[in-house]
């Protein structure tokens, strides 16, 4: 049968309508799946959230770091992904590029200013003396200011062609995350004890709050401030820092250090609560990762893990598998013998990766708890702002 031109046109129109409806439905579904109020993440921190900044500045990292997910070292102080990585995945964003990484970075969805060994307060010593990073929080803030200025300058020049920089309006549509303070707390514990450390912790908190206020001035409106983890349960500190057996709780964590961390976290929570009055239209969220990690250290088997206060990557075996003279991945002569701090074959069973940092498995469980919105103060419905993606 031969169709007339009019019949062909009618048939074509019907097919076209079906195609347009189908495309609209698919577009709607895709839009729904990818909907998120946050177009970028800007992160400030230390090794707990450094995705390669430190090693971009001081190249040296080797295996077994990165063995679980990336199958190579990527500048992360763990076997795989960090909380900030999982958070980016959940928001439908790519991994956030380190600000200090000159090759391969893509800043269209944010930047990561965190570096290993960073402190909140300006260091009064050198990296090559004590191991403290020169990239303190004040430096990271200055890097952020410079980044925004360069973004605005680039777009003001109406330059054509592709770019790895974000749109200048991204700064008000971003999530600003803070995971920093651990080194301020632990670096002087051995020398001055918890009472000495407590004397300058208010300065640490004041610096964090001041940084948030400056970022608010740059356009930031949503801030996640992760509190201090339970360092009293970390294998490295259980081995290195002085404590008595009577100072251990029933889970093997140092009571005095644990109490000092809780005191700091309470001060931080109070300071953030007071600061909200000065930041109208901002969401300033205290994120209680301490509670999550403490639960993992105390009851690892309840969450699919096996070991709490024992490091996966280390040397010495025993309760902690940590030796202060030979760090994860390193080889050193001890008592006339070459020894290597090597990684276990099953990091997915551990909370602690190297005695100081969490494994990918622990980071994933912590992020899942965060995404559940149960550890926010004040309550914050992340799922109402973003259609959260599964984190594999």
Provide mean pLDDT, rounded. Answer: 91
Q: Give Rg in angstroms.
A: 24 Å
Strand content: 5-15%
Low-confidence stretches: 1-13, 15-32
How many alpha or pi helices?
13
For this entry, what is the oligomeric state of its chains?
A: single chain
Counting helices, strands and paired strands, the structural category is: alpha/beta
Largest β-sheet summary = 6 strands, mixed
Helix percentage range: 25-40%
Shape: globular
Helix and strand element order? HEHHEHHEHHHEHHEHEEEEHEH
The spatial strand order of the largest sheet comes to 2-1-3-4-5-10
- Gap from first CA to last CA: 55 Å
Please count the beta strands (DSSP E, at least 2 residues each): 10
Keywords:
single chain, 392 residues, alpha/beta, 10 strands, 39% helix
Give the secondary structure arrangement, pairings included.
Elements: H1 5-34, E1 40-45, H2 53-57, H3 83-90, E2 110-112, H4 127-130, H5 137-156, E3 174-179, H6 182-186, H7 189-198, H8 201-217, E4 222-226, H9 235-240, H10 255-275, E5 283-287, H11 289-298, E6 307-311, E7 331-334, E8 337-340, E9 350-352, H12 360-371, E10 376-377, H13 382-385
Parallel strand pairs: 1-2, 1-3, 3-4, 4-5, 6-9
Antiparallel strand pairs: 5-10, 7-8
Helix pairs in contact: 3-12, 8-10, 11-12
Task: Explain how this protein is built.
- The protein has helices at 5-34, 53-57, 83-90, 127-130, 137-156, 182-186, 189-198, 201-217, 235-240, 255-275, 289-298, 360-371, 382-385, and strands at residues 40-45, 110-112, 174-179, 222-226, 283-287, 307-311, 331-334, 337-340, 350-352, 376-377.
- By secondary structure, the protein is α/β, with parallel strands linked by helices.
- Strand 7 and strand 8 (337-340) form a beta hairpin.
- The longest helix has 30 residues, at 5-34.
- The radius of gyration is 24 Å and the shape is globular.
- Residues 1-13 and 15-32 have low confidence and may be disordered.
């Amino acid at each position: 049968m031969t169709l007339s031109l009019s019949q062909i046109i009618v048939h074509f129109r019907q097919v076209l309508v079906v195609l347009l409806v189908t495309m609209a439905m698919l577009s709607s579904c895709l839009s729904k799946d990818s909907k998120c109020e946050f177009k970028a993440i800007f992160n400030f921190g230390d090794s707990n959230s450094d995705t390669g900044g430190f090693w971009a500045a001081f190249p040296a990292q080797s295996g077994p770091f990165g063995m679980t997910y990336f199958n190579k070292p990527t500048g992360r102080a763990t076997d795989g992904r960090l909380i900030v990585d999982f958070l980016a995945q959940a928001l439908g964003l790519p991994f956030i590029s380190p600000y200090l990484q000159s090759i391969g970075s893509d800043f269209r969805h944010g930047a990561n200013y965190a570096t290993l060994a960073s402190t909140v307060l300006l260091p009064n010593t050198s990296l090559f003396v004590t191991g403290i990073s020169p990239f303190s929080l004040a430096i990271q803030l200055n890097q952020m200011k410079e980044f925004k200025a360069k973004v605005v300058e680039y777009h003001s020049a109406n330059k054509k062609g592709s770019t790895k920089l974000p749109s200048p309006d991204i700064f008000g549509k971003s999530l600003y995350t803070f995971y920093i303070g651990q080194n301020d707390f632990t670096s002087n514990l051995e020398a001055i004890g918890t009472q000495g450390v407590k004397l300058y912790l208010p300065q640490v908190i004041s610096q964090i709050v001041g940084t948030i206020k400056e970022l608010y001035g740059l356009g930031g409106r949503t801030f996640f401030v992760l509190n201090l983890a339970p360092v009293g349960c970390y294998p490295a500190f259980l081995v290195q820092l002085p404590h008595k057996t009577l100072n251990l709780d029933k889970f093997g964590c140092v009571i005095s250090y644990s109490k000092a961390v809780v005191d700091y976290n309470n001060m931080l929570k109070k300071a953030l609560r007071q600061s909200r009055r000065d930041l109208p239209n901002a969401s300033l969220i205290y994120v209680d990762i301490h509670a999550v990690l403490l639960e993992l250290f105390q009851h690892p088997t309840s969450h699919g893990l096996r070991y709490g206060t024992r490091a996966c990557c280390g040397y010495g075996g025993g309760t902690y598998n940590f030796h202060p003279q030979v760090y994860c991945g390193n080889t050193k002569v001890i008592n006339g013998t070459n020894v290597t701090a090597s990684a276990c074959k099953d990091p997915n069973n551990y909370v602690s990766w190297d005695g100081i940092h969490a494994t990918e498995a622990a980071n994933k469980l912590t992020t899942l708890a965060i995404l559940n919105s149960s550890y926010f103060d004040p309550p914050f419905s992340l799922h109402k702002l973003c259609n959260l993606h599964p984190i594999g």
